[in-house]
Amino acid sequence: MKNIVILISGGGSNMATIVRTAQQEHWEQRYGARVAAVISNKPDAAGLAFAREQGIATEALDHKAFASREAFDAELAATIDRHQPALVVLAGFMRILTPGFVAHYAGRLINIHPSLLPAFTGLHTHQRAIDAGCKFAGVTVHQVTAELDVGPILDQAVVPVLPGDTAETLAARVLTQEHVIYPRAVRALVQAL
Ligand code: GAR
């Protein structure tokens, strides 16, 4: 079985879309792939309840309980590895990962970032796109490498920036496209595994 482990920090709408797509498209029968676990660094992340309702194993690992980023990442990796992942999917996981963690999952760790990379790495991508006068914004799925938001691009989608957009209205438009491309990218990877 190709186990997919999804990491979240909040609402988990991308995670939920991947889970629903896997169910609707019968990924288990077709590709031998399943979402094996959802892990959050925030114990109260809303997405954990959804995953639990779907019968998926969930784990919460509060980063505040760890003395260092390295200690948290070591425990996170041990938690992930108990689910024997073929693919680790960051879906709104708002933690910077240590180089050791990234190296451990080299080639099987992906992220979704709400900008058209290589533009606007980091935070506040929508406001920065508006402030820069961009006419288009978007979203990128990429392989995770040691440098933040810089790994090889796997998929992208573009949306217009409309007059009067706020960071919130633009984020909502981008999110609808996130829900299109993330399941597509994960499907392509598990098919190729
Ligand atoms: C998404 O917009 C995702 O692109 C972004 O967080 C949101 C999570 O939403 N990720 C980042 O900003 C990563 N730096 P979700 O919890 O509803 O999937």
Automatic annotation (TrEMBL):
<dbReference type="InterPro" id="IPR002376">
    <property type="entry name" value="Formyl_transf_N"/>
</dbReference>
<dbReference type="InterPro" id="IPR001555">
    <property type="entry name" value="GART_AS"/>
</dbReference>
<comment type="similarity">
    <text>Belongs to the GART family.</text>
</comment>
<feature type="binding site">
    <location>
        <begin position="12"/>
        <end position="14"/>
    </location>
    <ligand>
        <name>N(1)-(5-phospho-beta-D-ribosyl)glycinamide</name>
    </ligand>
</feature>
<dbReference type="InterPro" id="IPR036477">
    <property type="entry name" value="Formyl_transf_N_sf"/>
</dbReference>
<dbReference type="GO" id="GO:0005829">
    <property type="term" value="C:cytosol"/>
</dbReference>
<keyword id="KW-0658">Purine biosynthesis</keyword>
<comment type="function">
    <text>Catalyzes the transfer of a formyl group from 10-formyltetrahydrofolate to 5-phospho-ribosyl-glycinamide (GAR), producing 5-phospho-ribosyl-N-formylglycinamide (FGAR) and tetrahydrofolate.</text>
</comment>
<feature type="binding site">
    <location>
        <position position="111"/>
    </location>
    <ligand>
        <name>(6R)-10-formyltetrahydrofolate</name>
    </ligand>
</feature>
<feature type="binding site">
    <location>
        <position position="69"/>
    </location>
    <ligand>
        <name>(6R)-10-formyltetrahydrofolate</name>
    </ligand>
</feature>
<dbReference type="InterPro" id="IPR004607">
    <property type="entry name" value="GART"/>
</dbReference>
<feature type="site" description="Raises pKa of active site His">
    <location>
        <position position="149"/>
    </location>
</feature>
<dbReference type="GO" id="GO:0004644">
    <property type="term" value="F:phosphoribosylglycinamide formyltransferase activity"/>
</dbReference>
<feature type="domain" description="Formyl transferase N-terminal">
    <location>
        <begin position="2"/>
        <end position="186"/>
    </location>
</feature>
<protein>
    <recommendedName>
        <fullName>Phosphoribosylglycinamide formyltransferase</fullName>
        <ecNumber>2.1.2.2</ecNumber>
    </recommendedName>
</protein>
<comment type="pathway">
    <text>Purine metabolism; IMP biosynthesis via de novo pathway; N(2)-formyl-N(1)-(5-phospho-D-ribosyl)glycinamide from N(1)-(5-phospho-D-ribosyl)glycinamide (10-formyl THF route): step 1/1.</text>
</comment>
<feature type="binding site">
    <location>
        <begin position="94"/>
        <end position="97"/>
    </location>
    <ligand>
        <name>(6R)-10-formyltetrahydrofolate</name>
    </ligand>
</feature>
<dbReference type="GO" id="GO:0006189">
    <property type="term" value="P:'de novo' IMP biosynthetic process"/>
</dbReference>
<feature type="active site" description="Proton donor">
    <location>
        <position position="113"/>
    </location>
</feature>
<dbReference type="Pfam" id="PF00551">
    <property type="entry name" value="Formyl_trans_N"/>
</dbReference>
<keyword id="KW-0808">Transferase</keyword>
